[in-house]
Amino acid sequence: MQQIPNDQNKNNVVATGRFTFHKKNLYYSFYISDKAARPRSLQFVDSDGTILEEHTLSGAGGLVTSLYQNATRKVCGVWRRLPRDYRRLLKDERMFVVLVWGVKDQAEFTLSGQIMKYVALGTELFSSLLEPAPGTNSLVMSGAGGTAIVSASTTVSPSIHIAVVFNGIFLPDEISDVPVNITLALDEKKQIILEEKIRVHKPAHELNLIEVSSPVTPSDLRLLTRGRLVLSVSSVSKPQALRLSGNVITKATCELFQSTLNSPNNDRAVNPYGSTGLAWVYLNNEGSLVYNVQVEDLHPDQRPVFITLVDVTTKRKMELEDLTPYFVNGWANGTVDKLSPRVLEPLYSGNLGVNVETQTEKSLIRGRLSARLVADARDARAPVLLKREDSSLPPSAVGMAWVTVDNECHVHYDVSISGMGSSEKKLELYMELLPMIAPGAPVISRLLDEFHGNQVEGSPTETLSKEELIRLDTGVVFIKVKDKNTKNPLLSAIVREVKVPASCLPHFTDNDVPTINLDTDVSQNGACFHEGKFFFEGDQWTASDPCTMCYCQNGNAKCDTSSCPEISCSSNMKVKGSGECCPVCSNSTSSQESNTSVPRGCSFGGKFYSAGSKFHPFLIPNGFDLCTECICDSLLLEVKCTRHSEKTCCKHCAESKAMLDSENGTYISDPSSPGPNTITPPDINGVVSFKSPQQILAEGGCKNPSNPNRPYENGQKFHPWIASLGEYKCVTCKCKNGNQSCERQRCTRAICHKMFRPKHNDVTSNTTEFCCSQQQCKRYRRHHKARDNNS
User: Fold this and answer.
1) Which of 174, 371, 607, 610 is 20 to 30 Å from the Cα of 362, by its Cα?
2) What SUPFAM superfamilies does the entry give (predicted)?
3) Could you give the angle at which helices 341-349 and 218-225 cross, rounded to 10 degrees?
4) Comparing 2-117 with 120-250, is the CATH topology the same?
5) Inter-residue contact 674 to 680 (CB < 8 Å)
6) What residues contact 759, with CB distance under 8 A and at least 6 apart?
């Protein structure tokens, strides 16, 4: 690639790229001069300069979070789903690329180049980025550069082949049959490995191609493999002034090599405990082999294990490298620094394997490393091991998954499986997101793909929701492979390291920790987390303190603590059962329970109460009603509740948060009810419905806990029915699209004045007719008294 005219490339920065078209996707890889930071963006343009596509390559300062790209100093990416018209441009070599440095909308400098085909790329093992050599004049060499495509053979007669694409080393008068020098040398020892003089018949200003082949020694190949050789191309007439040079290094293509590790199909005798694993390796910019091997479910009887890299083309599976010394806690991670050609050649030809051996089995599990282009999902920090969830699967069933999120907030995945038997089985790939591992945790399940065979990769077209992104970043993520017909999970893994770009997460102006409930819909359908457990909307439960009850509303756990009603017995007769809040008189239960080990009692609001116990009812949404006392009848084992008057109750009741802040301190008396203390269910015999309960619920209706056969219709308003207390008219609820929202009557100044104003003309006001307590009206009463005193 060369600079665009009138650009500010003062340091003569050079880049070389490799492009691979695979399954309608165009993968790209670049080496950039050490003199420049990573470019900001990459543009694909046509011959008229029209931008066809633009990709962001790095953040501020040229930073990227990719472990692979930082270790190899490569720039990697993919243009997915290349349109047909653009594929034609690519095929006809009429597509160009532009690397852009600088901030957005203000380019510092750019490099451009034409995407062209070269036969030598099919066997490339090494690459070289050719830049103006040290000591040359930067002005004279402005715009000069090149790249080398190097292949090697390690047969009986080792040899190398070099194809060099270059420009910028010809004098103005050199127009035909111009000789150039090409040299491959060990610079530190001034040792020449290869030196040739090749003639260029028609030198071009843009690009020139020369090729050379030569036999080499095994020692030379080792130096080549370890990145110690320097390639240079120079003018014969002015070799010191017009010269390009660069180290021969790892192939420019962004790729890694991966494999699942398993035993032969259905071989339970060899692998009775179902041991599995995975491996992935890559070459860094120094030519060293970085390896990562994971082995799971090893039984103590199978230890110790021996992990080796082997050449699978030989009958005895020749051992090339021993990775056992670095195997700790199920992982073998490390680097092979002095890489030899006998490892590199089988690696690139697909014949390098990973073998796990025990003292009794020469090959407990194994796998053959295959090349994969690095981009999107495979640019994640590490893959995860998919293990069996279905015990009926053979022990060879295993998979590996790569997952990442791009700057556009799309999730990308790449899953490879093996040992599953028939490759025609229809499968589904799911991503399940939890806020954390806890009982009852709410799960967001997203279908990523449907597939059959051993590999699937892609990305959903729609972006992830805010809640999904937060759970990916801070929660727990499962990747599962399921049977499409039965929906049974076959393989699964926890994805622990998914980095979500900051631009995809909500922004906060302070240090508050963001919650999952980001909008109304999420809140209304969210779950509550309390004391290490999750509860669904509308649930009520007893906290670790038996006197505290909680319920889940709009994603928040709301709790209230109750005091105990007085009981009529001496203190030495009071007993309190395990897990209960209030004591009971021992004589009320001892006689009945003496002949049975099953505790006798009543169930109320999902909570058990011993026979004879007294308690205050817990009423959603306002907590304990301290002015109502309920008792579990020790003979009938039925709950009976009695409502005290406001004045009598509050003379001996402690002020609780429910009494002060909600309508639970009072209860409205319905004039149509048979009596002030008698509670009966609502009369529903006169209600006529022309729709079935299923139809009402399907149209957005809401369930009716007091009568499941009479659900509330969508849009209907109603008063909740409280067991043992009846219709609670202080609260009005509305059903909307399957969700219930409830509001209590507000205690306004007018209502409070009506409740407590002085009586005139023998007209009495009963405070039980209102939904406001004395405590809630105190501020209005104080204000009213002050005005009376001032007058």
Assistant:
1) 371
2) FnI-like domain
3) 70
4) yes
5) yes
6) 765
